[in-house]
Amino acid sequence: MAVGYFGDVVFQTSDKRILSFRDFKLNASSSWGEHKRNGMKPEWEFLGPNSEKVSFVVVLDANYGVSPRTVIERLTEYVESGTISVLVIGGKKVGTKWRATSLSSDWGHIMSGGELVKASATLTLEEYA
């Protein structure tokens, strides 16, 4: 069953394949301008929202039908090529469009011959307006 997707990376769980994520974080913030006033407390002006940011850890395990190296290479390509895509979780879009801004991977288990068996990758996305 599909959990969601970003680009053509589909997060799913089934009896044959598990590609999931954990530690999903959504950060929303705003910008404010400070107007200093002589002898008085400053006055604040709301300037508008900042771009939202999302980060999550992609769990990769070859024992569950996933090629960790292939997924890491695909996500790295998104970051390095400036890919813009929607992020869908549970059949609903999160925000509007997102750009992949960084990927940090942890190669947890490498077999003899260099085969990557278990890994995790932290993907950071920023809202694209």
Largest sheet properties: 9 strands, antiparallel
- Widest beta sheet: strand line-up: 7-10-11-6-3-2-1-8-9
Unreliable stretches: none
Count of the separate structural domains: 1
The ordered H/E elements are EEEEEEHEEEEE
Overall pLDDT confidence: 94
State the CATH architecture: Beta Barrel
Shape field: elongated
Please state the structural category.
mainly beta
As for the CATH topology, it is: Elongation Factor Tu (Ef-tu), domain 3
- Please report the first level of CATH classification, the CATH class: Mainly Beta
Strand content: over 45%
Question: Summary?
Answer:
With 129 residues, this protein is mainly beta.
What do you see in this structure?
The protein has one helix at residues 68-81; strands spanning 2-6, 9-13, 18-27, 30-37, 40-49, 53-61, 84-85, 87-89, 92-93, 97-110, 116-128. It has one domain (2-128): Elongation Factor Tu (Ef-tu), domain 3, CATH 2.40.30. The protein has 1 helix and 11 strands. By secondary structure, it is mainly beta. 16% of the residues are buried. Helices cover 11% and strands 63% of the residues.
Topology:
Layout: E1 2-6, E2 9-13, E3 18-27, E4 30-37, E5 40-49, E6 53-61, H1 68-81, E7 84-85, E8 87-89, E9 92-93, E10 97-110, E11 116-128
Antiparallel strand pairs: 1-2, 1-8, 2-3, 3-6, 4-5, 6-11, 7-10, 8-9, 10-11
Supply database-style keywords.
129 residues, mainly beta, Elongation Factor Tu (Ef-tu), domain 3, nine-stranded antiparallel sheet, two-stranded antiparallel ribbon, 1 helix, 11 strands
